[in-house]
Fold:
Amino acid sequence: MSEPLLCELSVPGRCGCTLPEVGVPETPLPEGFVRADLPLPEVSEVDLVRHFVRLSQLNYGVDTGFYPLGSCTMKYNPKVNEVAASLPGFTQTHPYQPAHTVQGNLRLMWELQEFLKEIGGFAAVSLQPAAGAQGEFTGIQMIRAYHDDRGEKRDVILIPDSAHGTNPASSAMSGLQVVEVRSDARGNVDLEDLRAKCSERVAGMMLTNPNTLGLFDEHLLEIAEIVHRCGGLLYGDGANMNALLGIARPGEMGFDVFHYNLHKTFSTPHGGGGPGSGPVGCSAILSPYLPGPRVERVRSDECPGDVRGHTHTEDCFFYDWTMPERSIGRVKTFYGQFGVLVRAYTYIRMLGAAGLRQVAEDAVLNANYLQQKVKEVFRLSHDRRCMHEFVAVGRVEGSDVRALDISKRLIDYGFHPPTNYFPLIVPEALMIEPTETESKETLDAFAEALRRIAEEARTQPELLRQAPHRAPVRRLDEVKAARELILRWIG
Amino acid sequence: MAHRIPEDLRYSRTHEWARQEGPTAVVGISDYAQAQLGDVVYVELPEVGEEYRQGDSIGVVESVKATSDIYAPLSGKVVGINQALMDDPSIVNRDPYGEGWMVRLELADPAEWETLLDAAAYARLVEEGGH
Amino acid sequence: MAYTPHTEAQRREMLQTIGAESVAELFADVPATCRFPELKLPAPLSEVEILRELRELASWNASAEEFTCLLGAGAYHHYIPSVVQTIVGRSEFYTAYTPYQPEISQGTLQAIFEYQSMICALTGMEVANASHYDGGTAVAEAIIMAANVARGRRRRILLSPDLHPEYRQVARTYLRGSGLELLGDERPENDLDALEKMLDGDTCCLVVQTPTFLGEVLSPERLRRLAEAVHAVGAMLIVAVDPISLGLFVPPGEYGADIVVGEGQALGNPLNFGGPYLGFFACRRDDVRKMAGRLVGQTVDAGGRRGFVLTLSTREQHIRREKATSNICTNQSLNALAAAVYLAALGKQGLWRIAEICYHRAHYAAQKIGRLRGFEVRSTRPFFKEFVVSCPLPVDELNDRLLEEGFIGGFDLSQTHPHLERCTLLCVTEMVPVPEIDRLVRVLREVTR
Structure:
């Protein structure tokens, strides 16, 4: 039995909430302005709650079980983050309040800027970008603006063939031309191909490191040098920063501008697809171009006080907004995904330097351990030490089942499937990222499930092709969805 | 899996086919191309009267997992499009060389026929993996 | 460390399986010169300590919980029914990723389908996507979509000066390097008549906002004529709306809008100091393939039961790469869920009532304030929940006085509209009780004494 749609639960005259009266003399509504009908559902509060609770039970989240979705860093989301982000002193503040009435928010944002600078090795950070893809767009626009200011016409962005699709899309949105760079047999950027494609037209290169194969490029410093020598700048996609916390700082490895994914590395929840947050860090030469406003701290004679007149004596600073002098402008309304920033701040404060390094170490330890176990069952795309994730090839000798079938069967074993068919350069890719928050017992159970599935692939392949069998629904007809395009209920 | 490659057609390296009909050419995508795409869910075609050069994108064919441009195998003016594909794009999968035709072009340069592959050459291209 | 479960013994065991001597050895590919930097970060805290610190920081703020908020200008303090947090706080929703595996994501998928349906109902449009980052980026993406519909053949983008200043700034950032020209908002007096005169064959789209940034509700009849004029030159009409106002007023779909966007924060999402918010985006069915963002569609499973999937993904970056309609990947899914719960909780009657309260209380407040010496209401009627008042003193000074009296004052228009010096944009929602309006009037009277 599928869950009814809200419109099917609707009964004329019902309402799911209680509201105050207008309470003032009414002002006539002008003729021709008022809508004839408002076709929203009418459901009672209890029906509404049960509907959405039932829907929630059809979902699988990190709190449900192991979620080794490669490149997405589905780590546990600490609950204290949620408590922190729901403090009314944060949630009930308006973005246009004068700075002196929101010193708490500004202080938190300034501190977070400082933390991210320190972790990434950058001169400046803007918290404004709303998500990783917007961070990329921001970084590419900054690179563009930098070259424009120097009167240089550079219109090419180099992107490895293993890159996430947002990289070429962000470059194209910035009006730049994308040139793909090949990967070599060890999964690194092919240096020869890179050299051949470097020219005076190159504005920069976008590089994810560790890359989407989970590999740390063995020639990273050389890549940076090649790109810089031809006058380009190096953009770092921080999707895989979880492997680098306290291990290495992108700003010290040749990256000029870089985005962090707070919703991956810094434990803020993915929300079923968002909100994320994609702050951008950069070197001193690019800092004038950052989007703004950013928070700055100025020494103050008066110690910051709260609005009730209490003063706080620990430091005498005033936090205020500032626009970088040659800013590319705003990339979104207001200042950033503040609620997400509170969660990331909480996470960093709770872990400190040693805790963050432990995160990266255990993330890499878990991935290598699981890789070793999975290797007994599936071929690896690149058989070498990995970082926080690895890619296996979802094929079983003596069977024609595909990576997708293996993934769907994993659902029956109670696990979320890995990322399928990405990166594009590995056919039948199963991209597995365990994250640091998973125990050895969970990893062992997952490896064991894969072993049994490989066995099933040989003995009863139909079981895999029809999987999942224990999910709320069976496989869904995507062709029908795309041909018929039912995108809303007809109420 | 063997793909049908009719002898009487010419092919582009981007997997379009063309059939000569007097001063015009009928154009579609090959059996290999439709098989690579999987179930076609949508076809976008040019407007009658538009002119294209050989290699220009004249439309888009879309499945649930990929979107491919359709490139003009020959230069010319669009004089007809297959309206039936708008209502039922799955025709492209069922009958790529017949009912699944896409565009009729009035040719600007008949000499371009010589630049296209014949069935044997196209069969070799497909065998090599399509590139 | 609470979030990493291994014991030292387990780590050793795992290293043995891997065949490594130490964890450090796993990082051999990292250039030695850069390996293991000493991060200068504050010492770690326990939950007890961090929450104490954060409560302290939060207490430095003046919040709309303790103060009566008269500030709007694109972010609104509306009532959020308790059911919204109950649902959004369910971790089956908030700890899930994008629903790429539909068999175990039907909760998110159906909720987004319902969100899309209700955005269509609200705006009078045929198709809505699963969300953008906020109102500003939704406007920018709408312009890019219009340019793609015109297949890059039209270069002029007309912006109303009454479109939110930050939306216009975001649009300019997004379109830098696109070759498109943004104009129309260079003079604040460019009204709809003036904008209509600027339409020509090179115009790609016209973007207007209702209620305008200054609160005025544009006449649906006037907008219908505007839409006709826009369509006559082959361009698109993009309308940014306050979704709460659509509880009461004619939806843009009824007067010919081609794309309807807006800031959806007011639909069940707290002020949150500017984010995370919700960009909603709706268009005509014919244009759906040019739309950015995720879409959920209805289908059936192998057993013939109704189910939901992400559809038309081939428009998106993970498949189409540099030819995608946009680079958007992560969106505002949880905020869209909040909006869905909010719209369903209020429903037909509730949203109407909220919109009515805003309208009547705002007009009541304007009438009373307009009678005070030194204050003048500058808005054209009808307005919705915001109106412009010119004041006898600079607005920042006025707002300091209001703060002492427990009010978060209005938006200081001198920051964005130099011709509106000493003007404040006041916002009255259902969260401002009637006695507070009366007290505000008394306080304002005192201020001028």
